[in-house]
Write a structure and sequence with these properties.
Blueprint lengths: L1 E7 L12 E7 L67 E2 L2 E2 L14 H11 L4 H8 L4 H7 L6 E3 L2 E8 L4 E8 L4 E8 L2 E8 L6 E6 L9 E10 L11 E8 L9 E7 L2 E2 L7 E7 L5 E12 L2 E12 L7 E6 L7 E10 L8 E5 L4 E3 L2
Parallel strand pairs: 1-9, 14-21
Antiparallel strand pairs: 1-2, 3-4, 5-17, 6-11, 7-10, 7-12, 8-9, 8-11, 12-20, 13-15, 15-18, 16-17, 16-19, 19-20, 19-21
């Protein structure tokens, strides 16, 4: 059984002026694990920045010294054709952690000669269907994801990419993103026979977010999942899918509120490594994370899409809650061209399994 939701993301500007709507519809698709209760519909009232967001329903956070607490007992599933409704349990306030909500859309990378090769590598990897059987056969076991964190492809197209990460029943999932033309973003979360889909709408060229909560009957324990993010065109319109720019994706109580790793900075706009010039980077952590990686990824614009290829990475120390981390990147030995900062942060099994991947709006051009 496929749970389908339609989410209106709030688009933060200087004030939050956009409407937010989540609509979850239960429709037949993909099949369902034996005995698996169908998820419930969900609908959220509209809100603007002139009214405070509804207070979230208290949730029991995962224990910091043991495996996550058991998920709440699922409600009685609705009869076919008469689904029940409930209020959402997670909302984002205009400010969090002492700073305004993120609004910087960043710069769009220019094209480069590397585009065709990266596009070909992405196409070869896409030959194996992610939403099909890959979840059952991939090597990202829950133990590996707990130790090494969420797995991001070495090359990917921001219009359509998948991340392997842990998932748990009733977890919130957050997406921070921007599209450049009318359309939507579709998020599919697949764990074995469990499937969940959210369709997220947002005004073009405005950075926005969406928070959805998985059903309480989405499995019974921490397990591996694929989070597939793709842009889709307006239904029935003869227009292409919009170009997607993702700034953050996270799952788990301690990864969501906004995106628990935010305020990414990566400056200056250009460096010459041979002249011993370097880039400064930084980010803010709303939660404590056991594992943190700073990764510097080459980016280029090709065929209207943002393509990404991993270049270099640095292992960072565990980061405490509220920390503003800073570092420098010399760029020596890196690919010439434009780079973004990618931060992966996660909590191991004992601390709940929550995880975040965040990308900088800033771009640094490495000139050889």
């Amino acid at each position: 059984m496929l749970a389908h939701s339609s989410v209106k993301s709030a688009s933060p500007g200087f004030f939050f002026t956009s409407l937010a709507m989540l609509v979850f519809l239960v429709v037949p698709a993909w099949g369902q694990a034996p005995g698996q209760a169908p998820p419930l519909q969900s609908e959220t009232p509209s809100q603007t920045d002139s009214r405070p967001a509804p207070a979230p329903t208290p949730q029991q956070p995962p224990k910091t010294d043991s495996r996550p607490a058991p998920a709440p007992a699922p409600q009685q599933p609705p009869n076919a054709g008469s689904p029940s409704t409930h209020a959402p349990t997670s909302q984002r306030s205009p400010t969090r952690g002492g700073h305004p909500a993120e609004t910087n859309p960043g710069l769009t990378p220019h094209g480069s000669g590397n585009g065709p090769a990266i596009f070909a590598a992405i196409g070869a990897a896409a030959a194996v269907p992610i939403i099909g059987g890959i979840v059952a056969h991939h090597n990202a076991s829950p133990e590996k994801l707990s130790h090494d964190g969420p797995q991001v492809p070495k090359e990917f197209n921001m219009n359509d990419f998948g991340i392997k990460g842990l998932v748990y029943p009733n977890w919130p999932v957050v997406l921070d993103f921007m599209i450049d033309s009318p359309g939507s973003v579709q998020v599919d979360i697949v764990a074995g026979k469990l499937r969940y889909r959210a369709t997220i709408h947002n005004d073009p060229n405005r950075r926005g977010y969406a928070i959805v909560r998985l059903p309480a009957n989405f499995g019974t324990k921490l397990q591996s999942a694929v989070y597939q993010v793709r842009s889709i065109p307006i239904a029935g319109a003869n227009t292409p899918a919009p170009r997607l720019r993702t700034y953050g994706l996270g799952a788990g109580e301690r990864a969501v509120g906004s995106v628990a790793i935010d305020q990414l900075t990566f400056q200056p706009a250009t460096i010459h490594p041979k002249a011993n010039e370097f880039a400064d980077y930084g980010f803010h952590a709303h939660s404590a994370f056991d594992g943190v990686r700073a990764e510097f990824i080459f980016t280029t614009l090709y065929n209207g899409s943002m393509l990404v290829q991993k270049d270099q990475e640095e292992q960072l120390s565990p980061i405490p809650e509220g920390e503003r981390a800073r570092g420098t990147w010399k760029g020596q030995g890196s690919m010439p061209g434009q780079h973004m900062l990618q931060i992966r942060a996660w909590r191991g099994f004992k601390n709940g399994g929550d995880w975040v991947v965040a990308w900088s709006p800033d771009i640094v051009d490495v000139v050889k």
